[in-house]
Amino acid sequence: MSLGNRTSFTTGEKIVTDARYAEQLHPDMEVPEGFAVTIIAKYTNTGRVFYGGTKAEAEAHTANLDIEDYETFYVTNLNKIWIAVEVDEEGVDYKVVQ
Length: 98
What we know:
With 98 residues, this protein is mostly beta strands. It is 5% helix and 38% strand.
C-alpha cells in the first residue's frame, strides 16, 4: 500500500478545564489510515499532562508528558485519545495530517 503525500494538515489545542476530569482530545476528527497524530504538552504548562486510550486511563496518571514533550499516536480518530492535567486550564497542542 502506498500512502503518498497528503494535501493538508490540521493543528489545534486541547485545554482541560478541570484537572479532576480527563477530556477527549477532539470530539470527532478522523485520521487517515497510515497517518498519525502528535500531541505536544504546551510550553506554558506548569504541570504534567496525562494521556490514555480511555477516560479512566488518562485519569490514572500512568502515561505523562512534561512541558514541551510530545507523543505520536496511530489512531483512526482524535476522539480515541483522552487528556488529563495536573493544573486546571492546561493542555496540549496537536497536529494531524488530513
